[in-house]
């Protein structure tokens, strides 16, 4: 008999082996997965409750489901093959580097048979991406080039190969901040059955986690995920574009879709999500092109791009550290009370409370601070991997080690380093902060500023020759000529000491 082995990030009846009516379905809920790192409790609740719900749905439809709760995958497979010797298992190729080989070893060690099928949770196949890379004749990866190619390949928002509206992206229209009295639409509530409270209780009793287990609001069934998608399209897609980079002290989600967790565990597929967004745009007059294009780019472009860059660049990508940054993360990453920095404290609190912040808080606040502070890319990657509900190794590693930490130049051309100026422009945090975003030195100066100039000084040998850094190094030269760098270094040292002593 053939049995579909469904992993916790492949929870789809629409794609993969479950779509082929397998004779039997296997789930292995391995508790050692939960103990591998200090995960957010909501992440564990999401994955295990969603697995159990899918198993229930399949059973209700008469499917023969074997659900093994075990200490490890190996123990789960022992139990399975004891009861069903001779079955062939089929699993979608996991996106995590090396995972397919590990699963095969486990099955081989038990005398079983495993077929690894194509992973259908993405739009672009490995072969198609590799061919696209080959056609670039040695040019480095380029997200923009990949995205345009994907738009042409899929036909999404294109006419005869040209972009709808005349431009491939509308970023210049997507950097607005909402008015002070802006209220984004309320999020949908989901009714949870027995599995969410059960898993939450087990996690609280058995596992060392970081984060709040209450306030769980993530989709854990296909029906929840479909409703989350419909709610986003109806209520938030229209304003998503203009405000996608904004940060608001009183509103953690603004108009973001919050679909990344459902997509990354397989409850939604990228094709249906993108096509639904484009249909919504076509059917309504009030959804601007810059909103739907910005959303399509995140899924058709960036999500697919990082998946394949990860696939090709691992295992070196995970260890990449071209700037040689080696500090541990300061304690404030686990305790928002350890800092008075409004933007950083708020972002940490949001991760603690929900396992989520949107992409700009991830990149320009949480990663930016770690980059300027001098934290090792691997320490930051581990923190993101544990702390976010939507984090899986294939998505978090390129985003954090590559983009957030500039650990490699394989697919980013410059570090995403910014002073307080960026946060001040894109958020309302600075107005309520004890630090001054316009000062660089002195006890009240925003920590981002001295760290920013100190970072540029520290890594001058590596970064000055980068043509995209010419302007900022011109400003650094001005500061050097004015004799400001010693005071900046002193303030940056103070900032690092205060962060280490939980007093920043
Ligand atoms: S002043 Fe600095 S620390 Fe405070 S909110 Fe603004 S950028 Fe963040």
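^ Assign residues to that structure.
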């Amino acid at each position: 008999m053939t049995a579909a082995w469904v992993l916790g990030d492949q929870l789809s009846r629409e794609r993969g082996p479950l779509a082929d009516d397998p004779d039997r379905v296997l789930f292995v809920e391995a508790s050692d997965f939960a103990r591998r790192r200090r995960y957010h409790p909501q992440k564990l609740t999401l994955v295990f409750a969603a697995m159990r719900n899918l198993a229930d749905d399949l059973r209700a439809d008469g499917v023969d489901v074997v659900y093994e709760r075990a200490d490890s995958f190996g123990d789960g497979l022992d139990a399975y093959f004891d009861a069903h010797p001779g079955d062939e298992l089929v699993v979608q190729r996991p996106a995590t580097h090396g995972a397919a080989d590990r699963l095969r070893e486990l099955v081989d060690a038990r005398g079983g048979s495993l077929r690894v099928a194509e992973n259908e949770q993405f739009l672009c196949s490995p072969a198609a991406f590799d061919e696209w890379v080959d056609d670039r004749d040695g040019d480095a990866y380029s997200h923009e080039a990949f995205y345009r190619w994907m738009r042409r390949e899929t036909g999404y928002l294109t006419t005869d190969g040209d972009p709808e509206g005349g431009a491939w992206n509308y970023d210049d229209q997507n950097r607005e901040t909402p008015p002070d009295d802006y209220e984004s639409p309320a999020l949908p509530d989901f009714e949870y059955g027995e599995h969410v409270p059960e898993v939450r209780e087990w996690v609280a009793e058995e596992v060392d986690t970081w984060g709040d287990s209450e306030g769980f609001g993530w989709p854990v069934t296909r029906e929840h995920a479909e409703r989350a998608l419909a709610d986003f399209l109806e209520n938030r897609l229209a304003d998503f574009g203009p405000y996608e980079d904004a940060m608001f002290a009183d509103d953690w989600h603004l108009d973001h879709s919050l679909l990344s967790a459902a997509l990354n565990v397989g409850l939604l597929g990228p094709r249906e999500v993108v096509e639904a967004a484009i249909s919504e745009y076509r059917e309504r007059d009030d959804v601007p092109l810059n909103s739907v294009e910005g959303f399509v780019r995140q899924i058709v472009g960036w999500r697919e791009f990082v998946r394949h860059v990860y696939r090709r660049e691992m295992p070196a990508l995970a260890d990449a550290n071209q700037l040689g940054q080696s500090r541990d993360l300061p304690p404030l990453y686990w305790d928002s009370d350890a800092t008075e920095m409004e933007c950083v404290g708020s972002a940490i609190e949001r991760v603690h409370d929900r396992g989520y912040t949107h992409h700009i808080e991830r990149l320009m606040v949480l990663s930016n601070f770690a980059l300027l502070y001098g934290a090792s890319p691997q320490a930051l990657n581990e923190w993101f991997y544990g702390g976010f509900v939507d984090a899986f190794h294939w998505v978090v590693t390129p985003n954090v080690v590559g983009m957030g930490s500039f650990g490699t130049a394989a697919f980013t051309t410059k570090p995403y380093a910014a002073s307080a100026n960026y946060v001040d422009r894109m958020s309302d945090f600075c107005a309520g902060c004890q630090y001054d975003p316009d000062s660089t030195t002195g006890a009240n100066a925003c920590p981002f500023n001295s760290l920013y100039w100190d970072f540029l000084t520290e890594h001058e040998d590596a970064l000055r020759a980068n043509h995209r850094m010419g302007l900022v190094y011109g400003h650094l030269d001005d500061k050097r000529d004015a004799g400001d760098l010693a005071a900046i270094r002193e303030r940056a040292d103070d900032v690092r000491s205060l962060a280490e002593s939980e007093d920043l």
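Strands lie at 2-5, 24-30, 64-70, 88-92, 113-117, 158-159, 162-163.
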